Fold:
Amino acid sequence: MNRFPEAGPQSPRRTMLVLATGFAATAGLGLAVLGLRRLLQAYWQRYPEPKLVKVAEVSRIFIYPVKSCKGIPLTDVEVNQLGLQKGPLKDRQWLIVDEKWHMITGRVEPTLVLVSVSSENGFLCLNAPGMEELRVPLKLPKSNPVKMCRVWGCNIEGRDCGDEAANWITTYLKNSKAFRLVCYEPSMRPRYPKEKEPLFVEKDMTVYNDTSSCMMMSEETVEDFNTKLEKKVKIENFRPVVVVKDCKPYAEDTWKGLQIGTAKLHHRMYCTRCVFTTVDPDTGIIDRKEPLESLRRYRQCDPSEKHIYKSVPVIGSHYGIEKRGVIRVGDPVYLIVDQ
Structure:
């Protein structure tokens, strides 16, 4: 393991390297070796290397480029400050809005979950039952207007994707309202979850996600919860981006700092749940009752945390991104334990 991981200019590890280099340069070779050894021993005693304990394994990865549309299963993904990305497709960085530029999700338009998303030759491609393929340029013309959109009570910009995309979505949803598609661009200001949820930290950022850029669940959690249901649900009902296995049910709620692949994550809060969980990901039909009613019975927060979660059921957990990297299916999930 690298004992000198990436660190800022003021970090103890960087300071140690500078001191050791300077010592070796000014002392005689024999004295330098002896002194450097003592210096390093003292340093490792004061700053022991964190211990990595395997707690699970990555089994599935998803991104949802267009909010509320079908997820894309992946074998590997880049993790950056705004979430997960595969090539030009970034998790939840396209958004469907109404005439007032307010977000539209599967909660009110459940058939959105049947819209599949891909990219080809510089285009975002949308396909849906009974519709011809829509192709939207990934790089939109600067002449397309930038609009201030409303996502969970927060303002965030999005560049309009044009009339063809708007007509396609409006036609597919068969609604009397007119809908449009917008896209987030890197020059725009992201959303900061801490402005709404105090358990996040200042550096956490997201775009059109409900809460965070990284929601994790385990297969065992869904398997255990299914024992309480007459009609079983799939992990797709809960729309995580990282799915893990080989752990105890709900273990993802207990981990703090994690290293997966070359990325590092840190637990922020549980994921609260709403009527979207009752949308069948295979049919787009909304039940409005299950599994949400069972979640309300079986998955409430601890009474000491009622001031945070109220009476909203929870399942799965939000993680903040501490270090960028790459995550792959099959990667061990390591708990970072300070010694």
User: Anything to note?
Assistant: The helical segments are 12-26, 29-46, 163-173, 219-226, 292-298, 306-309. Residues 1-10 have pLDDT under 50 and may be disordered. Residues 222 and 235 are 6 Å apart (CA to CA). The first helix runs from residue 12 to 26.
